From TrEMBL:
This is DAC domain-containing protein. GO terms for molecular function: adenylate cyclase activity; ATP binding; diadenylate cyclase activity. Pfam families: DAC, DacZ_P. It catalyses: 2 ATP = 3',3'-c-di-AMP + 2 diphosphate. Keywords: ATP-binding, Nucleotide-binding, Nucleotidyltransferase, Transferase. Residues 136-294 form the DAC domain. PANTHER family: DIADENYLATE CYCLASE. The keyword Glycoprotein does not apply. Transmembrane segments: none annotated. Coiled coil: none annotated.
Length: 353
């Protein structure tokens, strides 16, 4: 099956643009199966990273052997979220440099896997403009009663657990922070309480030894209950919370459902570490409010990517300038202008992302 004309034109444009702006790679965001041998041949020696947000597509891509593949989080919905998280995952896994730039091919107009043209847009993104270390201002936006310093300390610890695992194995964890009076009645012990009998200072997350001990305890089942002041109150507890009126995308496990549910029933902040990916999700009011990817230094966030209005195919070899915004770089391209009706709009369609 040959590549659609528009997709072929975008690949050619991306290859030229990658050379002109000296980008680190071309990132292809897709949920559609393509003729990957033709894609690889068309890109030549240009570095290609494929971000797949379809559960069955990623294994097929890995079978190609020569492709660098990124699995997108299952809760990525809009094109901005999917694109941002794809680049965040690529940077945190070392596939892209934090200070680099990339050329991105994606479907920004019509997100439909059955569309005749699976790709329609092309952008240049400077990672340094959007990749940023987690700051206290990010935590203040959660609008929680929990002090931001406590939240920062717990999220840092959660990110370390997600990144390091334990004894060479990935480890998940769940922290419920704040509103302890209302959270404790919802808890049921499933193991001994490792914090019982210790002085307050010996249970404070300010202490390095306490944080290290929690990393060890994360191997056991159950949630950690942390007070507003960052004191470990309970560990290895089961949260008896109904999931009524809580909505999560398909694919989340019981740990994420418990995190969303307890944050819905109380004023606590639930911080969940995914065992499969190591990513950290923060729930407030029953909804995910923050996604954090762990790096070797500190957790990183991705600020929202605003995609600009696309313009129609140029009539000369000059890439059209976007209406506004920092993501598109006009570059002289030596590309043939398609003349057939099927190849129309090979660079991008009109529309808003």
């Amino acid at each position: 099956m040959a590549l659609p004309p528009q997709t072929l034109g975008l690949l050619q444009a991306a290859r030229c643009l990658n050379t002109h702006v000296m980008a680190d790679a071309v990132v292809l965001l897709t949920e559609t199966q393509l003729e990957w041998s033709e894609v690889i041949a068309e890109m030549g020696d240009t570095r290609l990273i494929v971000a797949a947000d379809h559960a069955k597509l990623a294994p097929r891509l890995r079978e190609e052997g020569t492709l660098t593949v990124i699995n997108l989080p299952i809760d990525s919905r809009s094109i901005q979220e999917r694109l941002g998280q794809a680049l965040l995952e690529a940077t945190c896994s070392g596939k892209l440099k934090e200070m680099g730039r990339v050329v991105v091919i994606y479907n920004g107009v019509l997100n439909d896997p059955n569309a005749p043209e699976p790709l329609d847009s092309l952008s240049v993104i400077h990672l340094n403009d959007h990749l940023e270390k987690m700051k206290l201002s990010d935590l203040r936006r959660l609008k929680s009663t929990v002090p931001v310093e406590t939240l920062r300390r717990v999220i840092d610890l959660a990110a370390q657990i997600g990144r390091e695992g334990r004894e060479g194995q990935p480890v998940g964890a769940l922290f419920v922070v704040g509103d302890t009076e209302n959270v404790l009645p919802l808890c049921r012990p499933i193991n001994f309480n490792p914090f019982r009998g210790y002085k307050t200072l010996d249970r404070s997350l300010v202490q390095v030894k306490v944080r290290e001990q929690i990393k060890e305890l994360a191997k056991l089942d159950g949630a950690f209950i942390i007070t507003n002041k960052g004191i470990a109150k309970e560990g290895c507890v089961y949260l008896d919370v109904p999931s009524k009126d809580v909505e999560l995308p398909a694919g989340f496990g019981s740990r994420h459902w418990a995190a969303a549910s307890v944050s819905k029933m109380t004023k606590a902040v639930a911080i969940c570490v995914s065992q499969s990916s190591g990513s950290v999700r923060v729930f407030v009011g029953g909804k995910q409010q923050m996604y954090v990817a762990a790096t070797p230094s500190r957790p990183h966030l991705w600020s929202n990517v605003r995609l600009d209005t696309h313009v129609s195919r140029p009539t000369t070899g000059l890439m059209p300038q976007p209406v506004s915004g920092p993501f598109h770089t006009p570059v002289k391209l030596n590309l043939p202008i398609p003349h057939s009706a099927d190849a129309k709009d090979s660079v991008s369609k009109n529309g808003d992302a």
